[in-house]
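Much of the work behind modern protein science is quiet bookkeeping, done one molecule at a time. The protein below has been through that process, and both of its lines are reproduced in full.


***
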Amino acid sequence: MSSPTPPPVDFNNVQGDILVGLPKRTQTYYFFQIDDARVQQFREQLAKLVPLITTTGQAMSDRQKIADNKKNARDGKPPLLTMSGVNLAFTHKGLVKLGINDEIGDSAFDKGMLADSMHLGDQGTTSPSGAFDPDWIPAFKQEIHGLILISGDSQVSVDRRKGEIERIFRVRTHSPTIHKVIRIIGDVRPGELKGHEHFGFLDGISDPAVQGFDTKPFPGQQTVRQGIILLGREGDETARPPWALDGSLLSFRFLFQLVPEFDKFTKDHALSFP
C-alpha cells in the first residue's frame, strides 16, 4: 500500500532557518532541559511560543524588506532594520520527555551525538571498559531536551526576544518549566568579511538548491529533491510520523577553527610556478 501524496509545501509550515535562513547579524543558541515536575505546563506554554516561531514565509518576507531597504537608501548606507527570528528544535530525549515516542526513522538522532562522538573523530579518552569520553564542553555532556535559536539585527534585539521567551517558560521564577544548559552566541564577521565564514570563504556556497523553492539556482549549484532537506517529501525514503512533515534534522557542532594555522599551512605548502 503506497503512502498518500502530501499536499504542496506550505512555507508557513516550515521553520525559517531550514530553507532560506534567518536574517541576522547575531544569533543565540539556547540549549535547555525541560523541568521534570512541569512537563505538562511546558507543553501548554508551547502554544504561546508558536506565534514567535519564524516560518520560511516570514523569513523570505524579512529578506525582501532588507533588500528593499538597501535599494531605497539614498546615500548608499541604509539604516539597519530592527528584526528578530526564532526557531525551535527538540532532541530525541526531549520528544520522549514530552511523551512523543513515535519512531523518526533515524538511529543517529535517537542515540544523540554524544553516543557517536568517537566515530565523528572527536578527541577524548577511552576507559579500560571501552567507554569513550569526548573532550567536549561539559555542558554538552548533560541531557539536552531542546534548542531555541534566536537571531536578530543586534544583541539588543536578540536579548529582548530571549527575555520574552524566558517569560513564557517562567525562567527565573519559583516555577520555571525549562532550565538553561548553555547559551552560545555567534556573530557575523565585520566589514569586508561580512557574509564570509571564518576561513574567508563565501558562506553558504555549498548549500544545494531545493526543488520547488529555489527557482533560480546559481551556476553550478545542484538542485535536490525536497525530501533531501524536508522530512516526508519526495526523496525522503524513510517512513516518518505524519506530524514530522516538513520538519528537518538539525546538527550542532562546536568546533575550534584554527584560522591562522590554516592560513600558514596554505602559504607554506602552496605550489610554486615559474
